[in-house]
């Protein structure tokens, strides 16, 4: 058996779970993605959170989909934001809810949801459609979304950049083009906004490594969505983070695929 | 941002306050409205000299995040990521008091933070 540069617990973990050492760090294969999505969906159903799995005709491919309503969050003055946050108390009546889960089984718009939007929230009602796809090239999930007003007017890319959560706006303004762009949906061929996946591995790494070291498992999709969702107004209730089971074998070694040598089983 | 005076070698408990708050009450009523947060750096992210903070329950993750970012003197092209239980990121709008109720242990909420130039 080759001596590998891994901690003993990791090797035991791999051996016990028959994971090939070629599996790379902090990445996700498509099968694990689907398993994560399945568990994610079960929890969504229990909350009526509105996520659905959409299959592509004549293909084994699919994606998670959800629609939600929000209000436009146009921020023209960054100073206004920081001032508001400084005045924040435990119940801030001026705090806007940026997205609202639709409680419906028909994938239509629930008119009842409209009256739940807070009084005092300024701006136009926006309908969001979120898709979670698997990217083969990045080996991570990717978040695609569309946004339009209720009368069907699509938001522009600039509108979307303007509506990014204030927690991320400064970083986005420093490099909007490597954050949110507009691309053709890989499965539907339509124009969608996409949160670029090129650095997903970096923000997933602390979680995956901690899980590895503690011999614990995570649900990659839940963790990933908890990071990216709020950027674009997608709320991920806390219960996802506690209730959705991890996927067995969804832990990875800490070696980059290029550095891993194949070892005899 | 007012802070307690700290010695360079000790880890002391600090208060995360807003500039508008000029007086720091130490009565029991005020103490109950705060929770203890322990901040832990991940990877190469700089370690904060003061790790333990007393934070108002109603404070949001975003507010705390901004505080840490200022403390670490982060650049505009850097993003701070916060993790709970090293397993997920809380929404920036989430109140720390709620996180404490759900995930606190031994009287404190442990949050890991990671600085990155990454986004996406």
Please describe what this structure looks like.
- The complex is a heterodimer of chains A (265) and B (120).
- Chain A starts with 7 loop residues before the first helix and ends in a 22-residue tail after the last helix.
- Chain A has a domain at 29-198.
- In chain A, strands 1, 2, 3, 4, 5, 6 and 7 form a seven-stranded antiparallel beta sheet that branches.
- Chain A is globular and about 45 Å long.
- Chain A has nine helices and seven strands.
- In chain A, helix 7 packs across helix 8 (220-228).
- Chain A has helices spanning 8-17, 30-47, 78-86, 111-114, 157-162, 166-174, 200-213, 220-228, 238-243, and strands spanning 52-55, 62-71, 100-101, 125-135, 140-149, 180-184, 191-195.
- Residues 1-8, 10-24, 75-120 and 253-265 of chain A have low confidence and may be disordered.
- Chain A has 265 residues and is α+β, with helices and mostly antiparallel strands.
- Chain B is an alpha/beta fold and 120 residues long.
- Helices cover 20% and strands 26% of the residues of chain B.
- Chain B has helices spanning 28-32, 61-71, 96-103, and strands at 13-15, 34-41, 52-56, 79-84, 108-116.
- A five-stranded mixed beta sheet of chain B has the order 1-3-2-5-4.
- Chain B is globular.
- Chains A and B meet through helix 3, helix 6, helix 7, helix 8 and helix 9 of A and helix 2, strand 4, helix 3 and strand 5 of B.
- Chain B: Forms a conjugate with ATG5.
- Chain B: It comes from Umbra pygmaea (Eastern mudminnow).
What multimeric state do the chains show? heterodimer
Total strand segments of chain B: 5
Helix content of chain B: 10-25%
Helix tally of chain B? 3
Average pLDDT level of chain A:
74
Low-confidence stretches of chain A: 1-8, 10-24, 75-120, 253-265
Number of beta-strand segments of chain A: 7
Task: Tell me, rounded to a whole number, the average pLDDT of chain B.
Answer: 80
- Which stretches of chain B are low in confidence, meaning pLDDT under 50 for 5 or more residues running? 1-12, 18-26
Please give the alpha-carbon distance between the first and last residues of chain A.
8 Å
Tally of DSSP helical segments of chain A: 9
Largest sheet of chain A: 7 strands, antiparallel
Strand content of chain B: 25-35%
What does the overall shape of chain B look like?
A: globular
Give the topology string of chain B: H per helix, E per strand.
EHEEHEHE
| Strand composition percent of chain A | 15-25%
Specify Rg of chain B, calculated over alpha carbons.
14 Å
Amino- and carboxy-terminal Cα gap of chain B: 31 Å
Give a quick account of the main beta sheet of chain B: strands, pairing sense, barrel closure.
5 strands, mixed
């Amino acid at each position: 058996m080759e001596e590998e540069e891994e901690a003993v617990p990791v090797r035991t973990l791999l051996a016990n779970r028959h994971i090939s050492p070629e599996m790379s760090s902090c990445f996700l294969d498509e099968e694990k993605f689907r398993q994560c999505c399945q568990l994610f969906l079960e929890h969504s159903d229990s909350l009526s959170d509105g996520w659905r799995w959409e299959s592509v005709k004549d293909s084994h491919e699919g994606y998670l989909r959800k629609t939600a309503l929000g209000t436009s969050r146009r921020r023209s003055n960054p100073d206004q934001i920081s001032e508001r946050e400084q005045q924040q108390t435990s119940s801030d009546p001026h705090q806007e809810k940026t997205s609202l889960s639709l409680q419906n089984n028909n994938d239509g718009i629930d008119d009842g949801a409209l009256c739940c939007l807070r009084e005092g929230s300024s701006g136009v009602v926006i309908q969001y459609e979120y898709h979670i796809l698997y990217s083969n090239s990045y080996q991570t999930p990717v978040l695609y979304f569309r946004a339009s007003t209720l009368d069907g007017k699509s938001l522009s890319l600039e509108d979307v950049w303007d509506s990014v959560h204030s927690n991320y706006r400064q970083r986005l303004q420093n490099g909007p083009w490597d954050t949110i762009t507009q691309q053709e949906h890989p499965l539907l061929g339509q124009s969608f906004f996409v949160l670029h996946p090129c650095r997903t591995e970096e923000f997933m790494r602390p979680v995956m490594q901690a899980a590895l070291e503690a011999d614990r498992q995570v649900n990659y999709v839940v963790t990933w969505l908890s990071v990216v969702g709020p950027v674009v107004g997608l709320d991920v209730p806390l219960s996802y983070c506690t209730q959705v089971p991890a996927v067995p074998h969804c832990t990875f070694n800490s070696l980059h695929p290029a550095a891993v040598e194949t070892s005899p089983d | 941002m007012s802070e307690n005076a700290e010695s360079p070698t000790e880890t002391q408990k600090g208060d995360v306050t807003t500039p508008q708050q000029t007086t720091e009450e130490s009565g029991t009523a005020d103490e109950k409205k705060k929770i203890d947060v322990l901040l832990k750096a991940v990877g190469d992210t700089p370690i904060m000299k003061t790790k333990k903070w007393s934070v108002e329950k109603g404070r949001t993750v975003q507010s705390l995040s901004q505080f840490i970012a200022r403390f670490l003197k982060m650049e505009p092209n850097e993003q701070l990521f916060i993790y709970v239980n090293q397993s997920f990121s809380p929404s920036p709008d989430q109140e720390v008091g709620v996180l404490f109720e759900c995930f606190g242990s031994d009287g404190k909420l442990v949050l890991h933070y990671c600085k990155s130039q990454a986004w996406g």
